[in-house]
Structure formats: C-alpha cells, structure tokens
Amino acid sequence: NENNIVIPVVINVVYQHANENISDEQILEQIRVLNEDFGRLNPDADGAWPQAANTDLQFQLANRAPDGTPTTGIRRRYTSYSNFSTYDDVKFAKSGGIDAWPTEHYLNIWVCNLEGDIMGYGQLPGGPAATDGVVIDFQFFGRYGHTQAPFDRGRTATHEVGHWLNLFHIWGDGDCTIDDMVADTPDSDEANHGCPKDAYSCGGKLMVQNFMDYTDDACMNLFTQGQARRMQALFATGGFRSGFLR
Ligand code: ARG
Ligand code: ZN
Ligand code: CA
C-alpha cells in the first residue's frame, strides 16, 4: 500500500562449508517471510488478537551498492572461522566476516554458523553504527526444507529484525512490572517456549503468538498495532532511522 516503508536489505553470507553458503532461493524465501510477517500477509494470521497489525514495513534486497552500481543485494565470503559468537566478529572483514554496508541506509543481515544453539541476535537502535544489523544462523534462515523444526518458518529473522526496529521482548525481560514499552501487548513475566495453550500470567491471557516471544515458529503470527507504531516512529522526523530512506 502507499504507506509502506520499503527497507533496503543486504545479505552478508559468511561460510566455511558448502551447506553454510546458502542458496539465493533460501535468501529470497526469507525476504518473502519478512514481507508476509510484517505485512500481516502470513498464511497463519488468525483472529485471536484484534490488535494484530500490518506494520506497513516492507523489505527489498538492495539493488544499488553504496557506490551506486547495480547489485543483487547478496554478498558472500569464505571464512577460516568455523563458527561465530555474539561478539560481532562476523561483522568485520578483519575478524573473518564481512564489513557492513553503511548501516544508516541498509539493513545488514549476516548469515553464518553461530556457535552452540544461538539462532540469531539483533542490535537495538542506538548501538555502534558498524555493528548495526542482525545475525542469523544458516540453519534458521529461510523456511521449511532448509531450516530446522521447530524454528523452520523464518521467524528468527522476523524476531531479530523486530529488535533492530526497537522492539523489546514481549515480557520486557523481567517480571509482571517490567513492560516492553508497548501498551497493547499484555504484561508477561517470562519467555514462553513451545506453544502453550490458554496460558495466563500477570492477571491476563498471554500473547504467546507474538513474534517477540520465544515460542516456536508455528506458534507465532503477529505484531500488534502498538509495536507497529513503535517501529514506524524510527522512520518519522527525529526518529533514529529517519535518514534511512533516500
Ligand atoms: N533467542 C533469539 C533472541 O533472543 C530468537 C528467538 C526466535 N524465536 C523463534 N521462534 N524463531 O533474539
Ligand atoms: Zn530476542
Ligand atoms: Ca506491554
């Protein structure tokens, strides 16, 4: 629609083994998931929560490199590192990764082998510019055939991009008194896992379907109107990402 904000994305694939050098198709599938989830076009959207929202945020692989030349929006590099931690080595060429394209104009997504069972992590707005972006393990990027159940619907990237767009975890990383700064997400005192049915806490029904919880991919299906407004505010005059789109 005409209110859409279209965010240019660059995918930085850092691999040692062939299976970590994921296909263009797997990447395109992840971009499709982001557009479905943020546009509330996801096939599993339901009527469970009336505040569920289309965020009007959309994602497109960059078609211009920083120097203006045409690009696929996909960069690839072989690395001698067998895996990466959450200490951001993957974001720098000097430590086996790929340097970001200017983070004031591109959403940088790094795809690599993350150590242990880390699926991904995202930097909130306001952190260092050079590391602004999200990192996703290659086994959880894209959906179905390429990814591991129960995190096989591309929602790790949806969740991490939510952080990049200023969203906190729905339970606010604390007890019932700690808020996620969004009025229309119910209070919650801890992360939910799996897909609890009719779960209650903090005096109300828990929104286990929210992308910013820790439930399984098949359980999650919504952002709220309040979350949508919080994300959109970044691109408004005075917002942290107001200079993003040119
Ligand atoms: N644990 C990760 C984080 O804190 C992501 C969880 C994503 N959940 C999912 N169902 N894919 O950012
Ligand atoms: Zn998170
Ligand atoms: Ca809330």
TrEMBL record:
Similarity remark: Belongs to the peptidase M43B family.
Protein name: Fibronectin type III domain protein
Superkingdom of origin: Bacteria
